[in-house]
# Entry
Amino acid sequence: MKLFKTTMAALIMTTGLASSAIAETKAFLQITLQIVDDNRSEAAGIYSKYKEPFLSKIDGAMSKQLLVRSEDVQVLHGFGSTEQAAAYLQSELFANDVVGELGSLLAAEPEIRIYEAH
# Structure
């Protein structure tokens, strides 16, 4: 448990998430992407391009973080509810813009999961 608390504290400090934002977040949408190293900088640019529109235009959007490791890249979205997370996947912003621009950079189909936070 101590390791978990330390890891969460590090995550909050490095991502700039305020503890109040985490406390209010009721659902997370995790999208895991297989992107080869040569395409990662372009993918990061797409993430940056759509972060602000996601936070300002998507109902219930509370946070968006890019998590990078050698095996894959994950985008972690925070929402007020699981319904809002699911609705985002059907939105024009996600379906037309994000998927449209990322599609050619993916080495495999993305893994998409929605989690309820407690």
Notes: The chain is about 50% helix and 25% strand. Helices lie at 2-15, 19-24, 37-57, 82-89, 92-102. Residues 3-16 have pLDDT under 50 and may be disordered. The CA atoms of residues 28 and 45 lie 22 Å apart.
